[in-house]
Write a structure and sequence with these properties.
CATH architecture of the largest domain: 3-Layer(aba) Sandwich
Shape: globular
Oligomer: single chain
Strand content: 5-15%
Largest sheet: 5 strands, parallel
Radius of gyration: 19 Å
Number of helices: 12
CATH class of the largest domain: Alpha Beta
Length: about 300
């Protein structure tokens, strides 16, 4: 298996590459809770996060993942950097490259920003989310969580519902889960989903009850008001009434179905609190697994394997 320099999208990964990263994440996970198991395999590496969009889970998990493997880690505070003076993305990246940064994790509102950066720097570039295109590390942690709980992906019914049109998480998960053999259904309001997404090898529907029925995994998505150019529904209250998932609706899924969400969750909109905090929810475990997966990514792309 040829090792790539960058992780830009799940679309670019083969099935065996995905499974390798999930296996490596499983080896990394014990290091999160037991600091005595942590190592310095990346002690000669330097990591910087360039987050042009806000983040809690993705940014912190990368910084912690780097620390747990002994890397030198830092966040380029965009608001206080030369970006605020008009410096371009390429110039920012090239300057960091010349300073000896080995790994750059970027989140940007522009689709293709990580790809542009990767072409202009020798450092490994990790896509932390670009526009409404892809969020590969989130998809990998989602797949890892599913594998941890369900074992095999073959014929698992995974329903992803909500703001599909603006979701890079939905797109990356669709690419990965289909490659691993799962049956994926994308569901949401007609204004936030397109039948054209069936080209990804998934089912597409606006019938939420139908989508949830007999699902092994139900993944809610955040309503991304900041990306919506129009008003796809009258109000959040109306969205919650017709497309939010509550306890009664979740009963149509399999009894042992997993409830997932990439976060942050708008409680009472995409999901009600009783199921977020219920026994089927693995939402907080996703956060823990995010650190394990990002440790695996840093180790793999940072050359410590």
């Amino acid at each position: 298996m040829d090792k790539k320099k960058d992780l830009l999208g799940i679309k670019d990964l083969q099935k065996d590459e995905i499974l390798h990263l999930l296996k490596l994440a499983n080896e990394m996970k014990p290091k999160i809770r037991d600091k005595n198991l942590r190592d310095n395999s990346l002690e000669k590496s330097s990591l910087v996060t360039l987050f042009y969009e806000n983040s809690t889970r993705t940014k912190m998990s990368f910084l912690l993942a780097g620390e747990y493997l002994g890397a030198k880690v830092d966040d380029l505070g965009i608001a206080t950097s030369s970006v605020s003076k008009g410096e371009s993305l390429i110039d920012t990246g090239v300057n960091l490259d010349y300073m000896g940064i080995n790994i750059m994790v970027i989140r940007h509102s522009m689709t293709g920003a990580p790809h542009l950066l990767a072409k202009n720097v020798s450092a490994s570039v990790i896509n932390g989310g670009d526009g409404s295109n892809e969020h590969p590390t989130q998809a990998l942690l989602d797949m890892y969580t599913i594998q941890e709980k369900k074992g095999d992906f073959k014929d698992l019914k995974v329903t992803i519902l909500g703001d599909i049109a603006n979701s890079r998480v939905a797109r990356s998960n669709a690419f990965g889960l289909v490659k691993l053999g799962a049956k994926v259904t994308l569901a949401g309001p007609a204004t936030l989903i397109s039948k054209d997404m069936a080209v990804l090898g998934v089912d597409v529907t606006t019938n939420i009850k139908e989508a949830i029925t007999d699902a092994d995994v139900v993944m809610g998505l955040r309503i991304q008001l900041e990306r919506q150019k129009a008003h796809p529904f009258p109000s959040l209250e109306e969205y919650a009434k017709f497309f939010g998932v509550n306890k009664e609706l979740f009963k149509y899924a399999k009894k042992d179905a997993l409830l997932m969400h990439p976060g942050p969750v708008n409680r009472g909109v995409e999901l009600t609190s009783d199921i977020i905090d219920g026994e089927n929810s693995v939402i907080y475990e996703q956060a823990e697994n995010g650190v394990a997966v990002r440790m695996a990514i840093l180790k793999h792309f940072g050359g410590a394997e």
